[in-house]
């Protein structure tokens, strides 16, 4: 085993043994990097067949593989455990519901050799496992993880062009400057939360570190039927609004600011107007705004103290 590999590829998983099996089968077939690397699986307290599946797994003979368990539930805890366990100079994250392009790791290897970035990310395409609903317009695909900032290899310097941890890597040493993933953010079990990756990315930029975009490193995010429901998008935005309000309110008064009620009413009127002119299939994006502001109001008034 090489204790100082260039790359650690880390896959965090929780109670998704069926998805995990497909992802591992895919990764076994891609082109391995020419540099030394290791594969790290972080089981985030799975209670299904995942632990047994990983114990019985027969890995490729030329792979360096480790499996660790992180019992603190939450994707941020799992990612922080990966940081602590990794041996690689660079750490690259992969989710358990993804397929990688055959040249995925070699594309990142090329980027590192040419630019020595502090952090980097690549293109994410969505791969539907069921029929795409009529109301799922292209503008909504970003909420399912689709990411495509440019066809060119280039630096990223704007906080409005975040990278997602479904296809994201960084020099492990940067956590000494920016800290770990915020454990108050991100998914916990079945809770449909997020934001830990965007927060991490923005801290990288604020620290003045170099972030590069690598479009040749492509990941395909498999979209399960459960995410092809309007309720998934509404719940996602309700939770985002609630979380942001709790953090913004802090220890302050629980009475929501009056402007939030005005924003909620304008959002409701926008839904009604869109419905009248274009029908229900065209209203979801505006319904998500209603859910977001409703979450902000309820989170401000009733959310726990941080």
From TrEMBL:
Keywords recorded for this protein, A-Z: Transferase
A single MF term (Gene Ontology): transferase activity
InterPro entries: Glyco_trans_2-like, Glycosyltransf_2, Nucleotide-diphossugar_trans
Family matches, as Gene3D superfamilies: Spore Coat Polysaccharide Biosynthesis Protein SpsA, Chain A
Annotated ranges, domain Glycosyltransferase 2-like: 8-178
Pfam families: Glycos_transf_2
UniProt keyword Secreted, yes or no: no
Top-level division of the source organism's lineage: Bacteria
GTP-binding is among the record's keywords: no
Protein name: Putative glycosyltransferase
Source organism of the structure: Thiocystis violascens (strain ATCC 17096 / DSM 198 / 6111) (Chromatium violascens)
């Amino acid at each position: 085993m090489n204790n100082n590999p260039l790359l650690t590829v880390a896959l965090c998983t929780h109670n998704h043994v069926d998805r995990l099996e497909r992802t591992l089968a895919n990764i076994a077939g891609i082109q391995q990097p020419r540099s030394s690397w290791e594969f790290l699986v972080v089981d985030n307290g799975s209670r299904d067949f995942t632990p047994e599946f990983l114990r019985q797994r027969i890995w490729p003979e030329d792979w360096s593989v480790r499996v660790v368990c992180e019992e603190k539930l939450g994707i941020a805890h799992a990612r922080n455990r990966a940081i602590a366990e990794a041996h690689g100079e660079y750490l690259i994250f992969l989710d358990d519901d993804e397929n990688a392009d055959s040249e995925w790791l070699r594309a990142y290897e090329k980027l590192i050799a040419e630019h020595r970035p502090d952090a980097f990310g690549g293109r994410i395409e969505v791969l539907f496992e069921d029929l795409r609903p009529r109301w799922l317009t292209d503008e909504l695909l970003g909420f399912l993880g689709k990411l495509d900032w440019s066809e060119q290899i280039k630096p990223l310097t704007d906080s409005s062009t975040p990278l997602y941890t479904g296809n994201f890597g960084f020099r492990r040493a940067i956590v000494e400057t920016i800290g770990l993933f915020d454990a108050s953010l991100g998914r916990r079990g079945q809770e449909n939360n997020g934001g830990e990756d965007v927060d991490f990315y923005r801290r990288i930029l604020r620290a003045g570190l170099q972030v590069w975009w690598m479009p040749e490193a492509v990941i395909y995010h498999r979209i399960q039927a459960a995410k092809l429901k309007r309720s998934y998008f509404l719940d996602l935005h309700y939770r985002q609004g609630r979380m942001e309000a709790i953090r913004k309110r802090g220890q302050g008064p629980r009475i929501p600011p009056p402007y939030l009620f005005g924003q909620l009413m304008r959002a409701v009127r926008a839904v009604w107007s869109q419905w009248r002119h274009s029908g229900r299939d065209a209203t979801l994006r505006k319904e998500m705004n209603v859910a977001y502001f409703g979450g902000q109001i309820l989170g401000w008034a009733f959310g726990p103290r941080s």
